[in-house]
């Protein structure tokens, strides 16, 4: 069993965020494809289900299999998660007035441009970096980062336990997430 990395305290993460600075400009740059990334937003099954429950649409309208498939024998391929649906190089929930699903947005959206990787604060490029952030806002963001890391570690462990028990469907593309296997629609 993999041991989760030692996580820093919410206070130390918040102090780092305040030192770096951040103020969301609501520009939507994080919701669009950029020159160096796909613009895809990786989400869990739980996050997709929360979006569907909040009225975002059907499962197929909200999410699609993450496009990085790995061949796994007998003409089958697997990917290990979902991404939000996108249209025209942008998240399908981005409108001219911002995110249409803001209250139900996934962890990655709540914590962007920050993430925790093996307990280290990782920062993505964002026009809002360097902006003014209050101590209270930094503490909320730091708490969200820790909760996101806990959630992602738990999901990864569920996948690690489930994957060896799955019978690989011949000639199919499929997703394995923390709840099991789903064969992709052709």
Describe the structure.
The protein is α+β, with helices and mostly antiparallel strands and 186 residues long. It has one domain. It is built from 5 helices and 13 strands. The chain has helices at 10-20, 45-53, 59-62, 107-111, 135-162; strands at residues 42-43, 63-65, 70-71, 77-79, 82-84, 86-87, 90-91, 94-95, 98-99, 114-117, 120-123, 173-177, 180-183. The protein has a 4-stranded mixed sheet with strand order 3-4-12-13. A hairpin with a 2-residue loop joins strand 12 and strand 13 (180-183). Helix 1 crosses helix 5. The protein is globular, with a radius of gyration of 18 Å. It starts with 9 loop residues before the first helix and ends with a strand.
Summary tags:
186 residues; alpha+beta; 4-stranded mixed β-sheet; 31% helix; globular; 3-stranded antiparallel β-sheet
Can you tell me the overall shape?
A: globular
Tell me the distance between the termini. 35 Å
How many helical stretches? 5
**Which consecutive residue ranges, at least 5 long each, have pLDDT under 50?**
none
Compressed to H and E, one letter per element, the order equals HEHHEEEEEEEEHEEHEE
Number of domains: 1
Strand order of the largest sheet: 3-4-12-13
State the helical fraction: 25-40%
The profile of the biggest β sheet is:
4 strands, mixed
Structural class: alpha+beta
Per DSSP E runs of 2 or more residues, the count of β-strands stands at: 13
Radius of gyration: 18 Å
């Amino acid at each position: 069993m993999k041991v989760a990395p030692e996580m820093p305290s919410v206070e130390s993460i918040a102090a780092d965020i305040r030192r770096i600075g951040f103020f969301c400009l609501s520009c939507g740059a994080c919701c669009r494809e950029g020159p160096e990334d796909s613009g895809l937003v990786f989400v869990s099954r739980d996050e997709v289900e929360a979006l569907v429950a909040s009225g975002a649409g059907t499962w197929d309208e909200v999410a699609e299999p993450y496009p990085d498939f790995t061949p796994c024998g007998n003409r089958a391929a697997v990917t290990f998660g979902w991404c939000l649906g996108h249209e025209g190089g942008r998240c399908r929930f981005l409108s001219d007035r911002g995110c249409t699903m803001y209250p139900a947005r996934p962890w990655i959206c709540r914590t962007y441009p920050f993430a925790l990787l093996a307990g280290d604060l990782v920062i993505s490029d964002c026009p809002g970096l360097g902006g003014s952030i209050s101590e209270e806002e930094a503490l909320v963001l730091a708490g969200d980062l820790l909760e996101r890391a806990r959630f992602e570690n738990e999901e990864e462990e569920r996948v690690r336990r489930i994957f060896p028990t799955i019978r690989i469907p011949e000639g199919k593309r499929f997703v394995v997430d923390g709840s099991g296997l789903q064969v992709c629609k052709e």
